[in-house]
Amino acid sequence: MPSTNPETLVLATRRSPLAKRQTEMVRDALAGWPQAWWKSIELLELTTTGDKQVTWSLANEGGKGLFTRELEEALLSGRAQLAVHSAKDLPTSLPEGLALAGFLPRADARDVLVRRAEVKIPKKIASGSPRRRTQAEKWWPGAEWTELRGNLDTRLKKIAAGEADATFLAAAGLHRLGIDSFEGLVFEPISIEKMVPAAGQGAIALESRSEDVGKFNGAFCAKTAQAVFIERAALTAMGGGCHAASAAYFNGEVLHVFHAPKGRATFAVDISNTAVAIANTTTVVTQWLGTL
Fold first, then answer.
1. Residue 163's CATH number
2. Quick check: is 194 in a domain?
3. Residue 266 forms part of a structural domain
4. Is residue 1 part of a domain?
């Protein structure tokens, strides 16, 4: 059980190796924060519905909240003060009473094609992401698409064992787990111009109760927050969620978006005022879709 000591900060996390590694990164970042009101930090490890339902198709089930709901319930019940998420997993709308308190500095946002070394043109590709599949289908016409669930190590083992010829993984997750190679596999990073990442990909998000957001002012990365909020505004305008065939990535100057079936576009974004930038993003993306 987590501590009930008011001087202890409790971080809610999923149990996967990547989730725990990301939470350790948050703990380390907060340990040296000069304005800390806590004297110790503890982890509350939880199993989410998405972790339990390993046979579910995320594309068919929708994915909304499958990897976040239990962590959010821990916040609302007071068992934790922060929930640690991969920002790309967060739905565009949060439960009432919760808000995003900040983000760690963003890592590489690109996707990585992981394929068996002997396979040059994959005929069977494993990905449960409509975003990745929709952008990549034209690369290999006629290829069979299937889903692949499990943590990173499990998925790598399944590809190496021949369950599929290739899959896509997030570069940031591989890096955080120290995985830059795997026997029998080739790792090929994909440019942003070729495959637009999920909104928030590469960023670690911290969610808290709305009234507690102010307690963490200055603790996290403002540049990453600005980029992710712009991307989430674009995703909302496209009517997409974290498991939709829509994507958005902001590099500090240019917003890259992808929407099926509309396609791909880029927009310059003035970030001199974040609130205005977010509002303008909503407007230009909506106009691009032709619905305004």
1. 3.40.190.10
2. no
3. yes
4. no
List, in sequence order, every residue forming a beta bridge with 83; answer none if it has no partner: 12, 207
**CA 201 vs CA 8, 39, 40, 106, 158: distances in Å:** 29, 31, 29, 8, 23
Q: Where are the alpha helices (DSSP H) in the chain?
A: 17-31, 49-52, 58-61, 69-77, 130-136, 152-160, 171-176, 222-237, 274-289
Q: Which residues in 43-56 are b (16+ Cβ under 10 Å) and which e?
A: bbebebebbeeeeb
Catalytic residue among 89, 111, 153, 270: 89
- Is the same domain home to 279 and 139? no
User: Which residue range(s) make up the domain with 18?
Assistant: 8-107+199-289
Asked whether residue 99 falls in the same domain as residue 239, the answer is: yes
Last residue of a domain, one of 143, 163, 189: 189
Beta carbons within 10 angstroms of residue 87's beta carbon? 28
pTM, entire model? 0.92
Query: From the first residue on, what is the mean pLDDT of each consecutive set of 10 residues in the chain (292 residues)?
Result: 74 96 97 92 88 54 70 97 96 95 98 97 94 94 91 95 97 97 97 97 98 96 98 93 82 97 96 97 96 56
Q: Do 13 and 102 lie in a common domain? A: yes
Q: Label residue 96 exposed, middle or buried (CB < 10 Å: 0-12, 13-18, 19+).
A: exposed
What is the β-pairing status of strands 124-126 and 204-209? unpaired
Q: What is the CA radius of gyration of the chain?
A: 19
Cα angle, residue 73 at apex, residues 128 and 279 outer, rounded to 5°: 70
Question: Both ends of the chain: CA-CA distance in Å?
Answer: 50
Under 8 Å between Cβ of 74 and 83: yes
Give the span between the Cα atoms of 60 and 82, in whole angstroms. 30
Q: Do 207 and 99 sit in the same domain of this protein?
A: yes
Give the C-alpha separation, 14 to 20, whole Å: 7
Does the annotation count 165 as an active-site position? no
